[in-house]
Specification:
246 residues; alpha/beta; Trp Operon Repressor, Chain A; five-stranded parallel β-sheet; 9 helices; 10 strands; 17% strand; binds ligand 9D3
């Protein structure tokens, strides 16, 4: 996959793209990144990328010309270019695992990141999609673009090992995960549940499923509405309600 990022802060991407999984994916040739500083495409002497709003009001808005020019330089003169353009914006569609899975199938993606401020409305015409990572205000679209890139990269075949890619399936059952334990068996008086040491795989499966349901019920009850629950799950939930005094 080729990822191009339009931003006036290309240095913000250097660290995240050069560590851990993303670093390895680049080294393996599974991903290529290019950052384009759209300030380089500003027309004015002072290289302004923003301006005051028509009609008045506080704050500045990103001007259309530098972003249009940068995108045209990236895509070349033709409209034949296949890369999907994603505008990072607080007004975008909420980002989910489903969005990540869909974007992970693309060959090329272009992210447009604003900083501090809003966009001139005409910039929206460049975008195939507009994405927000949640209802909180950040200083720019750069960290949100990194969040989207990080989550979709790990879904590209070959980026994660075999074991880790199976784990993607478990997210799709829509529940929070059961508790996990590693050695030692006892740590500062806290013991690993006996069932996990039993070697009884059916018992372990049942315990894990029930504890996944318990955690989801206690922390994210709304997820259970959408989950596909078996008769066994219903029985576990009744037990959980009794155990938790609900
Ligand atoms: C006063 C209006 N502001 C919106 C609440 C303007 C504004 C502030 C900050 C517009 C953009 C930004 C910077 N944020 C992003 O560009 C952004 C973002 C976010 O702040 N939260 C969640 N997802 C995203 S994606 C891009």
């Amino acid at each position: 996959m080729k990822i191009t990022i339009l931003t006036i802060f290309p240095e913000m991407f250097e660290g995240p793209l050069s560590a851990s999984i993303l670093k390895r994916a680049r080294e393996q040739g599974l991903l290529t990144f290019e950052t384009v500083n759209f300030r380089d495409y500003a027309l004015s002497k002072h290289k302004n990328v923003d301006d005051i709003p028509f009609g008045g009001g506080a704050g500045m808005l990103l001007k259309p010309e530098p972003i249009f020019a940068a995108l045209e330089a990236v895509r070349g003169p033709k409209e034949a270019y296949g890369g999907k353009v994603i505008l990072m914006s607080p007004q975008g569609a909420p980002f989910t695992q489903q969005t990540a899975a869909r974007l992970a199938r693309e060959q090329e993606l272009i992210f447009i990141c604003g900083h501090y401020e809003g966009f001139d409305e005409r910039i929206r015409t460049l975008a195939d999609e507009e994405i927000s990572i949640g209802d909180y205000v950040l200083t720019g679209g750069e960290l949100p673009a990194m969040v989207v890139i990080d989550s979709l990269c790990r879904l590209i075949p070959g980026v994660l090992g075999e074991a880790a890619s199976h784990e993607a399936d478990s997210f799709s059952d829509g529940l929070l995960e059961h508790p996990h334990y590693t050695r030692p068996r006892e740590f500062r008086g806290m013991e690993v549940p006996e069932v996990l040491l039993s070697g009884n795989h059916e018992e372990i499966r049942r315990w894990r499923r029930k504890e996944a349901l318990r955690r989801t019920w206690l922390r994210r009850r709304e997820l259970l509405e959408a989950a596909d629950l078996s008769r066994e799950d219903q029985k576990f939930l009744e037990e959980i309600c009794r155990e938790e005094g609900i």
